[in-house]
Write a structure and sequence with these properties.
The chain is an alpha/beta fold. Helix content is about 35%, strand content about 20%. The protein has 14 helices and 22 strands. The protein has a six-stranded parallel sheet, with helices on both faces. The N and C termini lie far apart (about 50 Å). The mean pLDDT is about 95.
Length: about 450
């Protein structure tokens, strides 16, 4: 049978989708590049924003027609919903889409093969398969490294997931559970397997990646910085990144790692969410604006070319014009290389959804536009400052034009070249010559 996985949301979901692909391929299923050619549809969902929920149900409506057409022909057809929406809205899924065969939470994806087999063998059309445990340990024990199949040259590797912070706007503790860190040996083994398949760049993933506390081979608990030094010793790894960091867990030893480890990219995604101490407190972020700025200063002190991206939420309940102005001031101080900004979206079960002083949608939209204009200007200026300089680029895909390749610099900038001598998977020094929208053009620097 042929399967197709549609992925929504964050890098963690991309990792989970990739590991499900590994498990299914190892079990003899064939991956399809188009959902219309598949008879197993898997939707790996995200519940961070309301639009993602509704997009799922829209996609499920289209999947329903495909399933009924297959049934009319006497053919098997399976629909499975995985991920955070599956965990948070099991009942809603089965009520609104009773033709779904299985609902699998993010910590149960290792059971994807058995879920499909059960779905194919069930006799009752109204019988649903639920796999919604919240413990991550069993998941990683069952996602074996020897199952990992073909890979691109840049891949994610989950080292920690779940969250103990309970930010008042966030559903992660309710969908992925409490924090869990994988053992160092398991992470290193997976990294070596990835590199053996041609991976050059690895991004370590965690909901709060810098709160990583995994057991090391010495039986002691290792921090993220110690793991970074160990990863730097893995032969064949050309570039190392990690995401997403919580400012409250940024420590001096992480800054030292950026100074010491040559393959560790001088680029960090450090979400701030707001530039107002009042709003940060309401969000339960556990750091102040000054503490956040101290993190930025410390990292730049240890690695002078350090660049940053961030996340911002505008229109959080109770956000005043003054609070929003403080957010703009913080962004102006930091000068981000990239950033992501969103309107506050109430999520079920979160404390913020029940708060007074919810902000009007019109005000949210106005504030978001102002902030995004500032952040876009900063990104353009950062990229403009790269013109004439040389950056290290890992080329990951073909471009739109003949002999064009696209890759990412150490600062996560999109860079394009036209050069027949360079191939996907190559890492090369590129002299930047031109800025095009949010990407850079360049040529290979002569040795």
């Amino acid at each position: 049978m042929r399967f197709y996985i549609k992925n929504y949301g964050c890098q963690m979901n991309l990792y989970d989708s990739t590991r499900m692909t590994d498990a299914l391929t190892t079990a003899g299923y064939t991956e399809s590049k188009k959902k219309d050619d598949a008879n197993i549809l898997i939707f790996n969902t995200c519940s961070i924003r309301e639009k993602a929920d509704e997009k799922l149900f829209s996609d499920l409506g289209r999947a329903k027609s495909l399933k009924f057409k297959a049934k009319d022909k006497g053919e098997d057809f399976v629909i499975i919903v995985c991920g955070c929406v599956a965990q948070a809205k099991t009942t809603e899924i089965t009520n609104r889409a009773p033709y779904v065969d299985a609902v699998i939470g993010p910590q149960e994806i290792h059971k994807i093969v058995s879920a499909i087999k059960t779905a194919l063998n069930k006799n009752d059309e109204d019988e649903y398969i639920f796999m919604n445990a919240m413990e991550a340990k069993e998941k990683f024990e069952n996602l074996q490294s020897n199952q990992i199949t073909k890979r691109s040259c840049s891949e994610f590797l989950t080292i920690q997931e779940g969250c103990d912070n309970f930010c008042t706007y966030c559903v992660v503790p309710y969908t992925r559970g409490r924090e869990f860190s994988r053992d160092v040996a398991d992470i290193i083994e997976e990294a070596k397997r990835l590199i053996s398949l041609g991976v050059k760049e690895i991004t370590l993933l965690g909901q709060n990646v810098n709160s990583y506390r995994g057991e090391g081979p010495d039986g002691k608990i290792w921090s993220l910085s110690k793991l970074l030094y160990a990863m730097a010793e893995v032969e064949g790894l050309a570039r190392l990144r990690y995401v997403t960091s919580n400012p409250k867990d940024v420590t001096k030893d992480i800054a030292e790692a950026h100074r010491d480890i040559k393959i560790l990219a001088p680029f960090l995604h450090l979400p701030v969410q707001s530039g107002s101490d009042k709003i940060l407190k309401k969000m339960n972020r556990k750091y102040s604006v000054n503490e956040y700025l101290d993190c930025i200063e410390m990292l730049r002190e240890y690695r002078h070319d350090m660049a940053f991206s961030s996340d911002f939420i505008v229109g959080f309940p109770g956000e005043t014009d003054k609070d929003f102005e403080d957010t703009l001031k913080l962004a102006e101080k930091v000068k981000y290389a990239q950033a992501y900004s969103f309107k506050y979206s109430p999520r079920n079960k979160t404390a913020a959804a029940k708060m007074d002083n919810q902000i009007l949608e019109k005000i949210k939209e106005e504030r978001l536009k102002i902030l995004q204009n500032l952040l876009n200007d900063q990104q353009n200026k950062f990229n403009e400052n790269t013109i004439g300089k040389t950056v290290s680029v890992l080329f990951t895909k073909k471009g739109k034009f003949k002999n064009q390749l696209v890759g990412r610099s150490e600062y996560s900038q999109a860079v394009s070249i036209c050069d027949k001598a360079i191939h996907i998977g190559d890492m090369a020094n590129v002299k930047i010559t031109e800025l095009k929208s949010h990407s850079l053009l360049g040529s290979i620097e002569e040795k």
